[in-house]
Automatic annotation (TrEMBL):
Keyword match Transferase: no
Entry keyword set: Membrane, Transmembrane, Transmembrane helix
TM spans (from-to): 106-127
Source species of the chain: Oryza meyeriana var. granulata
Domain GPI-anchored protein LLG1-like: residue ranges: 10-86
The protein's name: GPI-anchored protein LLG1-like domain-containing protein
Record's keyword annotation contains Zinc: no
Length: 129
């Protein structure tokens, strides 16, 4: 039996997706540009996207795909840096709900896996190294 997920505390509806939509463009969707843009956007939110008890990952990818009009599974199938997914810089400041930026101490620490469910069983993993 599947448990209901908690609402995401981050307002991804109002987020600025320009970093992704300005760099990751079709018809070719260059993997280097698309994946770096995804990391630029998502790494500050790893704390929330990693929380599998919330809807943050699915919500974030829903809006990325809505605003970017990306093909289903583009990021999940394209953006991989090893078995654990994409590596976020260790010093990436974590954004807190209601704040634009947070101190880099919020991101201190080892590995933070980020499980993001984008579509029907499509996923992407972001980690801090």
């Amino acid at each position: 039996m599947e448990h209901a997920k908690k609402d995401c505390p981050v307002n991804f509806e109002e987020a600025n997706y320009t970093v992704i939509t300005s760099q990751c463009k079709g018809p070719l969707y260059p993997p280097t540009l698309c994946c770096e843009a995804l990391k630029d956007f998502a790494c500050p939110y790893t704390t929330y996207i990693n929380d599998v008890q919330t809807s943050c990952a699915a919500t974030m990818f829903s809006y990325i795909n809505l605003y970017g009009k990306y093909p289903p599974g583009l990021f999940a199938n394209t953006c991989k840096e090893g078995a654990n997914g994409l590596a976020c810089p260790e010093d990436t400041p974590q954004v807190k709900p209601g704040e634009e930026k947070a101190s880099s101490s919020a991101a201190a620490g080892g590995v933070v896996p980020l499980l993001a469910i984008a579509a029907v069983s499509a996923f992407l993993m972001l980690i801090t190294s």
